[in-house]
Amino acid sequence: xxxxxxxxxxxxxxxxxxxxxxxxxxxxxxxxxxxxxxxxxxxxxxxxxxxxxxxxxxxxxxxxxxxxxxxxxxxxxxxxxxxxxxxxxxxxxxxxxxxxxxxxxxxxxxxxxxxxxxxxxxxxxxxxxxxxxxxxxxxxxxxxxxxxxxxxxxxxxxxxxxxxxxxxxxxxxxxxxxxxxxxxxxxxxxxxxxxxxxxxxxxxxxxxxxxxxxxxxxxxxxxxxxxxxxxxxxxxxxxxxxxxxxxxxxxxxxxxxxxxxxxxxxxxxxxxxxxxxxxxxxxxxxxxxxxxxxxxxxxxxxxxxxxxxxxxxxxxxxxxxxxxxxxxxxxxxxxxxxxxxxxxxxxxxxxxxxxxxxxxxxxxxxxxxxxxxxxxxxxxxxxxxxxxxxxxxxxxxxxxxxxxxxxxxxxxxxxxxxxxxxxxxxxxxxxxxxxxxxxxxxxxxxxxxxxxxxxxxxxxxxxxxxxxxxxxxxxxxxxxxxxxxxxxxxxx
Length: 492
Fold this sequence. Notes:
This protein is mainly beta and about 500 residues long. It folds into 2 domains: about 1-90 and about 305-490, no CATH class; about 110-120 and about 140-305, YVTN repeat-like/Quinoprotein amine dehydrogenase (Methylamine Dehydrogenase, Chain H, 7 Propeller), CATH 2.130.10.10. Helices cover about 10% and strands about 35% of the residues. It has helices spanning about 5-25, 65-70, 150-155, 285-290, 335-340, and strands at about 80, 80-90, 95-100, 105-110, 130-135, 140-145, 160, 165-170, 180-185, 195-200, 210, 215-220, 225-230, 240-245, 250-255, 260-270, 275, 280-285, 295-305, 310-320, 320-330, 350-355, 360-365, 400, 410-415, 420-425, 430-435, 460-465, 470-475, 475-485. Strands 1-27-26-25-24 form a 5-stranded antiparallel β-sheet, with no helix packed on it. Strands 15, 16, 17, 18 and 19 form a 5-stranded antiparallel β-sheet that branches. A 4-stranded antiparallel β-sheet has the order 2-30-29-28, with no helix packed on it. The chain is globular. This is LVIVD repeat-containing protein.
C-alpha cells in the first residue's frame, strides 16, 4: 500500500466521522477512553429465550449478518417475545413520547428526522417535523398533524413532554441548525391538536434537554459548552434563569423533587480537549427554588474506561434505593486514534449506576450485547449493511424506562440491533428478554444515503396497560410492538 493510498483512506474515515457528528450531533474533540487489551472488559448480558411465534436472530446476539440480506431472511425481520402491532411513517428520529390528555385521548409524538434536511425527500407527502399520532386505537395510529414550527422541524434530541402540565417542548439546536429556538406547546386539552404557546430564543443554542417533574423548569444543553435553565411557569413567556458555560452535557434528567440533575457528561474541557466522559451529578436546587442568580454546582463525576459518548442517564429506584440507567452512543470516535480505526474503539452500551450517595456514584452492572464486544467489532461484521458507518452500526443510542419506581423492564434502541428489552429487576445481573428488529434492505427505499440495516435511535415509550412498546427506526418509521410470551407482565 502506498503512502498516498494510506492518506486517502485516513481522510475518508475522517470524512465519515464528520458525517457522523452531523447526524449524531456530537462535537469533534480529543477524548480518552480507549480500552487496552490488558484491561478487564464487561461481558454481554445473557441472551433472551425466545418463545412461541418468535423469529430469532441467526447469528450472535444483536447481529444481522450480510448473508441474511442476500438470502432474504433480513426482510422478514427479527422478533423475540414480540410482534408488530402497527407501523406508521417511513422515517424517525430520536424520541417517541406517549401522553394522555384531560379528555382521555392518548397520543404519540415523534420527530421524523435525525437532522434537517436529511429526510426531506422521504417526508414530502407527509410533512417534515414532529409527528402527532392519535393512538386511541393503537392498532391503527392516525397522524393528525405534523408540527413544523422552528424547533419542531428538527428538534434533534430535545423533544420532551411534561405530563403534569401537558406541555410539549423542544429546542432547535445542532451544529447545523443553531440558534436554540425553544418551542412550547399545550397538549393538555387535546393532544391530537397541540397549540403553540411560544417560540423564543431562550433555548441558548440547544441539542438535548430535561424537564423538572413539576413542569416549571426546562433545561437545554448544547453539548458544546452551554447548559441553560428556562423558567416556564408562564409557558407563553419563557425566561432564562441562568446559563452555565464551559460544560459539555448531553441528556439531562432530574430527580422527582427537581433538585438533583443527572447529566450525561460528554467530557471536561481542558487544554488537550475533552476528557473523562461519564455522568455528572449536579445540585440544581437554587434553580428549583428560584434563587436570584442561581448557582449550579457539581456534586460528583463518574467515568468508566469503556465509555464512548454518554447520551442520557434515566433515574429510577429499586426497593427505595436510587439508581440511573445510563447509555452511551455510537463509538468513541472523539479520540484521533479511534477516529482512524473506530472498530477497535469503545462502543456505546448501557449500564446501571448506584446514585444513592450522589457524591459517590458507582457502576453496578453493564448492559451490552455480544455484537458489542471488541473481538466481534472488526472483520466480517463491518460488512453488514450499516455496520461500517460511525453514526449507525452496532452500538447503543437511547434507553428509557416505563416507570421510575421499581421498573422491571428497560427498553433500549441499539441502532443496527433494533429495539432491545432487558429485565432489570436484579440491578446487578440484568438480562435480555426480548427484541424487535426490522432492518431496511438496501435499495428498497429512498434514503440519503441508502445505508440499509436498522437505524433504531429513539428513546422508546410504553403503553403499560396494553403491554406495548413504541419506538422509531430512522430508516423505516414508527412501530407499535406488542410484548408476548408473558413479557408484558414486566411492564406492570
